[in-house]
Amino acid sequence: MAQPPPLEAASPLPEPGIGDGDDAEPEPRIDAATEQREAVVPAALHGQRLDKAVVAIAGEFSRNHLQDLIEEGHVSVDGVVAQVASRKVAAGQRLAVELVPTQESRAFRAERLPLSVVYEDAHLAVVDKVAGLVVHPAPGNQDGTLVNALLAHCGDALPGIGGERRPGIVHRLDKDTSGLLVLGKTLVAMTALTRAIAAREVHREYLAIVHGEIGQRHFRVEAPLARDPQSRVRMAVVASGKAARTDVETIATAPGLSAVRCTLHTGRTHQIRVHLAARGHPLVADLLYGGRPALGLTRQALHAARLAFTHPISGQALSFVAPLPADMASAWRNVTGVDA
Questions:
Q1: Model pLDDT for residues 139-178, shown as the tens digit of each residue
Q2: Structural domains for the chain
Q3: The pairing of beta strand 94-99 with beta strand 80-81
């Protein structure tokens, strides 16, 4: 589905300053509890649904959450509260949205947990997640997550985090996958990073160890993914699923095993795990997709090793590399004979 065109801001925020001098524009204050946004409907959205227009204002929020805000009276059109998501908007109308976090996100609490921060500034943070750490809270798992740790680490320096069910999170790693994640510390940065990922402008490389000796040096897996019709906890290659592409480079092979580098071009749930399993090469110790423990590994042999993107505020090119954690480093040496 094509993304809606951006709305014309009625009262544009000043650009956040990227320097420390007196001539730098101050960063706009974005309240952690609510944020007010206004925009004018452009000609391209004339006649479209109200909820679609609101998505163009606040694309980092889920459409369901924005529809809830409409129904709860947090959206107005030309100064009049509008509570019907399906009503049509007209070019030139002024939309105002009060972005209120969900009750669940407001309940998130800060926890002092170990957190490996690779890079941080006023707008974003890059962390090296350990295997076993859940990224964001969910029902039945409201604490002990990366989000809880991030809230404690940043404290009041997170003016935009808390907007939805995944505050600051613009992409995810599975619980038992280690490696690099970028997180937005303001809604401005979070929005830009979300759009960059959707536009495939964020480069993500993973190292993995799989069962089987792969004979090809390079290959590509392009297979659509969706929930497995037989199991809600699994993903599967499904013809009607979302397009997904993974490029794979074979680094080395050993009896019954291969070490590979995977480059993501899309970011579907469990993408690398499902794509490699579909080719007959499930990840070592990935029990969900047919892998078996080996080389001392009892969690899936997957590590987000490299992350590169353009800083959403300064425009600076950023690139980060996370070394393999001890368990995967040992297994990697067993397959390749060298350190990663």
A1: 666 688 888 888 888 775 554 454 444 567 888 899 999 9
A2: 32-100 (3.10.290.10), 104-199 (3.30.2350.10), 203-308+314-336 (3.30.2350.10)
A3: unpaired
Q: Which residues are catalytic?
A: 174
| Residue 37, helix vs strand vs coil | strand
User: What is the Cβ-side half-sphere exposure of residue 339, based on CA atoms within 13 angstroms?
Assistant: 5
User: Residues 6 or more apart from 232 whose CB is under 8 A from it?
Assistant: none
How far apart (Å, rounded) are the C-alpha atoms in residues 251 and 300? 18
pTM here is 0.71
Which of 80, 108, 95, 102 is CA-nearest to residue 34? 102
Query: Which residues contact residue 42 at a Cβ distance below 8 angstroms, ignoring those fewer than 6 apart?
Result: 5, 7, 8, 91
pLDDT in tens, 238-257: 999 999 999 999 999 999 99
CA 198, CA 190: separation in Å to the nearest integer?
12
